[in-house]
Each structure stands twice: as C-alpha cells, then as structure tokens.
C-alpha cells in the first residue's frame, strides 16, 4: 500500500476517523492493528520478523532495566545488537554470499539450491531495526527507562507512518507521545498534516515521477557501455542536476506524507528533510538537512562514540570516512556505495579542516585583541596612579574585578563610576575584538549566493556516482561530465528541469514558513490558494501513468 | 524566577562546555559564539544540548541545535522550553 495510492488514502481516512471516535485506550489497539495490517499488505510473512524483533528487544530492555550488573547489561545489549544486525545483514547482504554458497553446495552434490536460496528483503527492515536498536542502546546508556507496556512498545516500533521508510524514530521522543495519546484533535495540527500530505504528494507525483523517465533515459546510456556515444554534455549536466531534485523530492515527499499522516493522529514525527537543496550553507550543513534522522542515528550511535573527545582533526576525518562508508553499505552492498562513502567522508573532512582553520584564525585574532586591550589598560592604569584621584572614562577601572565592585572597601560613588567605565571599556574591547576577527577571516559577501550552487553541484556529482550502479560506468559518466561534447539539446528535459527548479524554490520557502508557524494559526492567503490550485492541476496532469514506487522500494 | 532559571542554565552550559570542549569557564559568556569563540563543532553542541536535556528534563530537537550560534541562544532555547 504505497503512500501515493488510493488504497492508502482510504486506509488513512478510516484510521483517522476511527482513531478520534474511540476512547484513548482502544485507540492504541487500533493503531497497532492498523500498523500490522499496513505491513501485512506488503507481505504477510514480514510481520513475523517485525513481531520477533519487537518481542526480543522489549524483553531485553526490561531485563536490562531491572539489572544493576554491568556485565549482564552488556551481554543483553550484545544480544539485542547482535540479533538485530544479523537479521538485517542476512536479508540485506545475502546476495553477496549466495553465489559462493551455491557453488559450494553444487560441489558437494546439491544441484538445485537456487530456488531455495531466494531471499526477499523485508521492506522497511532497516528503518525499524534502527529504531529498536536506538531503544535498547538508550536503555543501556540509562538515557531512558524501559517501557513496562508491551502494547506501547509494539505501537512505537510498528507505527505505520514511519514503518516502511522512516523517519527513523527514537523512543525518547515517541514513547511519551504514545503513552499519553492526545484527547482530541488540534485544529492547527490537522491543517499542517493535510498540507504536508498535499505537498508530499505534489513532490512525488508532479515532480519526482515527472522527471524520472527523462533522467532514466539519459543515465541508462551508461549502464553497460554498449549504448550510443552519450547524451551530450549539456543534456548530461541537466539530467544530473534534475536527478538531484527528483531523488530529494521522492524521499522528502515520502517523509512529508509520513509526518502529515502522523499529525492527523496527533503524533509528531521528527523532521527528516529541511530544505537541503536551497538552505544549506555548505556541504556539511547539507548532511544536517538531508535524511536527517538517519544521519542523526549514525552520528549518535557510531560517530560520536568512535570520535570521542579532543582527538584532533585527523581522527575526526578517519571517523567520518568510516561512518560514511558504513552508511554507504547500508544503502546498498556494492563497491560503488563503499567508494561513495569514503569519498563523502573525505570531502566532509576537507570542509571540516577549512572551517577549523578559519575558526582558529578568528580565535587567535580575538585573543591578540584581548591581550592588546589588557596591555593598553595596564599602561592607562599606571598613568592614572600618578594622577589620582581623577578617574577618566575608559582607563584605570578595567583592572577592578567585578566581584570587588561595591564591596566593603569601595564607596557607592566609586563603585558606580567603576561600573560605568568598566562597561565602556568592555564595549570598546568587544568592538576592537570584533574588528580584529573581521579583519582576519570573514566569508566573502557573495558566499550566501554561491553556497546553494556549490552544495547543489556537490550533491549532483555525488549522486551521479551512485546512479549507474557500477564503478566502471560511473567513471565513464564522470568522464563525459568533465569533457564537453556537443549534441542537440533535449528541450523536454530542459523545460522539466526549469519547472522542477522553480517548484523546488517555492516549495522550500513554503516548508520553511510551515516550520516557523508550526502549532500556530497560519491563515490561507490568496497567493497560496492560487498556488495550491495550480498544484492540484499539475498532480492530475502528471498522474496519468501507473503509480511509481517511492525510491526506497525500487529494489 | 526567569533570571534565576537563565543563570542556572548558563551555569549548566558552562560546566558542560568545560567538560566537552576543555575550554576556560570564563570564556562561556552569553554572547560567546559557539564555533568561533569556543571552538565547538555541531557534534560538540549536540553533546552539550544532550547534557542540558537530561539536567532540565526538556526535549531539544536536532534542528533547533543546528540553528544556534551563541551560548545565549542555547540558554534561551532551554529556558523557553522550561517556562
């Protein structure tokens, strides 16, 4: 049951109406049964794996919560992490081992193992595995208490809006909402929910699916190297840039529908995309705005423990490369994703180095300015000592410790003068510090305009690397991106890209507004009503074909 | 209460910053810039925010942390959630 299908619309409407019509306790049972029906709709066998994972982690966390023995707690955590990762690895990477296993079986006389060894990857397994892993790790770290309610925990893991492709949820945020479900629907939350679903549907149907055939046609020419000479330099660049909007909107659209559906049930899911293509200040910032919940998961459970504290840039760079390589392997098992991870880690490490150097220069300038001010005030103080009792503004008082002002030794008048002159000196110090810092390193005034272009191109280039499926074809594609070769420009592709770019800018602005007004009234304006009317027309225009699965289900 | 709360939060930020960043406590003032003055990267700020979450019983979202630039803004964020 895809989010962009009529079945899902009917399913969601039924669940929402039933949910608000019921008293609080049966509502949890409704959410639980609806979530399992939703998952069984994909494949009923998958619900057994979901149930087993849920029961194991519920039991492990309860036991861990009761025990004070560190060794037992560590053992229990190992059971949870081991069982989850082995299950995930079995389904996700079985194909890596399939051929050698088949060959080995053939050599010992089993000639028909192929049928038996077809393993289907349960949809959403990595998303809910990450959620349940974060729960047991947080209980182990004593950051949360294990929940005593199996029903609450089952709803948390199987909650249908997030189940298939995130956002990856954490118990710390979600369980309190499930334990204490809202009593009645909130007007603003419902309005936001409907708007997010509508925006998500537009992103998916009218942008991502509209771009998909045009970009696929360009990239398919690199698949096996037997196609025509190539799409031409301009067409290739347009397709590469358009594919970024296509994939971002495909996944962001899914996340918006998930968050919107959840808002209709009075439950807030975390942000998963925050306008990564238009608001990122640099490439590092992009990774804080794109697929946020997955990046936060890798950050909190891998990068932070691995990096530790105060071990310098080089170690941070190693950790970044390792974490991105693992994140690449999570996306897919090929060499192309592994190399993607290392290259991403490398690029981010370079950005980190540049930014740390700039910060260090600014700190040094600030310290130097402070030392200069201190030296000047010392000279002034020496001068004032000979001219007592006059106290001139800006001199002499700077060396008086704040704690001493107004103390038993000083009169009220002296203390007032001292405070006033101290304030002036501090203001001057701060101004001179800021001037010194500004003179050392300030981002050029054109950077805010260039930053989104830089981020967009970086994202496009990294995306192109994984698009064709193999290192050889990716290198061929990179060769053509770097070497201009003229061919007739594909007008259709160019127009689609311009339309997608225009929509991206407008939708990102609206999403930022929704974020600012979240939970507050946000009356409909005429301009927005017209824009939404146009979006409805565009959804109808582009929905003529059969629904295309969301990118995470295109296996 | 409001000033008292802010003072408490600032003290907590100071303690956490000294531990996470190994910086001088005097440097942690409300107008100190997290990255430029205190040498904190986004991960460090997340660590400090996690400490404050535990200490003051509030929930701070990642995107709220990423939008911060000064110690004072962090204090205001926690105070706003607490009030």
Care to describe what's here?
- The complex is a heterodimer of chains A (555) and B (83).
- With 555 residues, chain A is an all-alpha fold.
- Chain A folds into three domains: 6-179, no CATH class; 187-307 and 446-553, no CATH class; 310-321 and 334-442, no CATH class.
- Helix content of chain A is 72%, strand content 0%.
- Chain A has helices at residues 6-21, 24-42, 46-66, 70-107, 125-140, 150-158, 160-163, 171-179, 187-219, 233-264, 276-279, 283-289, 292-307, 312-331, 335-386, 412-440, 447-467, 471-482, 491-516, 526-542.
- In chain A, α2 (24-42) packs across α6, α4 packs antiparallel against α5 (125-140) and α13 packs across α14 (312-331).
- The relative contact order of chain A is 0.10.
- Chain B has a single domain (2-82), classed as ACP-like (Non-ribosomal Peptide Synthetase Peptidyl Carrier Protein, Chain A, Orthogonal Bundle).
- The N and C termini of chain B lie close together (10 Å).
- Chain B has four helices and no strands.
- Classes of the chains: A mainly alpha (555), B mainly alpha (83).
- The A-B interface holds A 143, 172-173, 270-271, 274, 284-285, 288, 292, 296, 299-300, 303-304, 307, 309-310, 352, 355-356, 359-360, 362-363, 366, 430, 437 and B 20, 22, 31, 35-37, 39, 41-43, 46-47, 54, 59, 61-63, 66.
